[in-house]
């Protein structure tokens, strides 16, 4: 009898512990939801909200056919109606470039690929000529960017300072603005040639970001990319690569419509000049869901080495979290404004998930502007916005 009583008491105790655990789990979930709801309510009270539009794009730099503002007007015109007050692109920040130069040797590959040894060498030459460190050049750049208007010689100095500060995007934007006949002699021939080549690039940072910034007469473009996770990347990649190369699911993904449809739409855009179908697809809910269900589900729920796959996911989230932080710096510099973020399409769903939780931020979808408005006569007003005239 005593044994039965003890067993009964043990069962009751176990049941009570399970109930307590379940209650604690439910309470934690309710607490999280309550906190989230409180944050949403607080955000809704904000009298000033900053709009953020994340535009997912293909990387256009591998297109051989020359792209310009006219050939991309089908996408630039709707973006111009959003009237962004700040534009951010997928480039490394000057501060992070300096960190990488002085940091882990693992960052060297990142600098080679995403910054380029040619630009780094030009930056050092400008630092030496100006007798300024990269940080001092960056600090000296700010007062010039705050000027209402610049004389050609001032703009030329701004370009040299931007190069010395590793701020490629501002150097390029103001090279577009520069009266070359009046001020280019003050800029080295090497830097001029580099900027001319950069200005002819099909990269979306130039063809979309710079063209739109010039049309709207913006003074700066904000770099928001991040690769500081790459000091951890190599050993994780080495552990993951064998199972990835042998994975039937990875092979199927490479042949899937998720991968191939954007390429087909890009080919059609080059033939027709209409880029809206491509950008509408990349920014659609269906495509963004596929980023999760097809691309990243491969690392979570398929046949890859699990620990390495989860580490790879963590690195991807580190990058996107850091990018979100950089975007919030843009928001902080433009309260109540309209921020356009141009990034590779697979970043969009992650960035929006994080930014949706930020106080005072209102996410705007590109599709709201992709449907062309009608004039009083029912005609599309694309002719009202001429990029060539505004250069």
Automatic annotation (TrEMBL):
Keywords: Signal
InterPro entries cross-referenced by the UniProt entry: DUF5694
Signal sequence residues: 1-22
Protein name, UniProt field: DUF5694 domain-containing protein
Organism per entry: bacterium 19NY03SH02
């Amino acid at each position: 009898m005593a044994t039965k009583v003890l067993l009964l008491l043990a069962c009751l105790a176990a049941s009570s512990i399970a109930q307590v655990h379940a209650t604690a789990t439910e309470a934690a979930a309710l607490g999280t939801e309550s906190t989230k709801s409180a944050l949403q309510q607080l955000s809704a009270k904000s009298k000033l909200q900053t709009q953020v539009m994340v535009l997912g794009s293909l990387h256009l730099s591998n297109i051989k056919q020359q792209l310009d503002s006219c050939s991309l007007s089908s996408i630039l015109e709707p973006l111009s109606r959003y009237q962004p007050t700040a534009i951010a692109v997928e480039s490394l920040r000057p501060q992070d470039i300096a960190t990488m130069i002085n940091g882990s040797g693992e960052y060297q590959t990142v600098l080679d690929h995403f910054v380029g040894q040619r630009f780094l060498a030009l930056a050092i030459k400008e630092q030496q000529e100006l007798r300024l460190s990269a940080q001092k050049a960056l600090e000296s750049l700010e007062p010039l960017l705050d000027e209402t208007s610049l004389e050609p010689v001032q703009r030329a100095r701004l370009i040299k300072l931007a190069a010395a500060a590793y701020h490629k995007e501002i150097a390029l934007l103001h090279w577009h603005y520069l009266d070359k006949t009046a001020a280019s002699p003050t800029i080295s021939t090497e830097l001029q040639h580099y900027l001319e080549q950069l200005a002819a690039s099909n990269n979306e940072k130039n063809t979309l970001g710079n063209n739109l910034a010039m049309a709207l007469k913006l003074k700066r473009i904000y770099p928001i990319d991040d690769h500081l996770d790459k000091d951890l990347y190599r050993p994780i990649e080495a552990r993951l690569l064998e199972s990835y190369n042998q994975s039937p699911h990875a092979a199927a993904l490479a042949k899937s419509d998720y991968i191939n449809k954007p390429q087909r739409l890009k080919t059609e855009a080059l033939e027709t000049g209409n880029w809206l179908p491509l950008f509408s697809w990349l920014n659609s809910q269906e495509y963004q869901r596929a980023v999760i269900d097809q691309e990243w589900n491969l690392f979570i729920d398929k046949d890859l080495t699990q620990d390495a796959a989860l580490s790879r996911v963590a690195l991807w989230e580190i990058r996107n979290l850091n990018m979100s932080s950089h975007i919030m710096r843009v928001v902080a510099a433009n309260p109540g404004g309209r921020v356009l973020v141009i990034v590779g399409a697979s970043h969009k769903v992650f960035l929006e998930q994080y930014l949706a939780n930020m106080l005072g931020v209102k996410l705007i979808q590109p599709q709201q502007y992709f449907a062309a408005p009608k004039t009083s006569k029912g005609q599309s007003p694309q002719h009202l916005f001429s990029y060539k005239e505004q250069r």
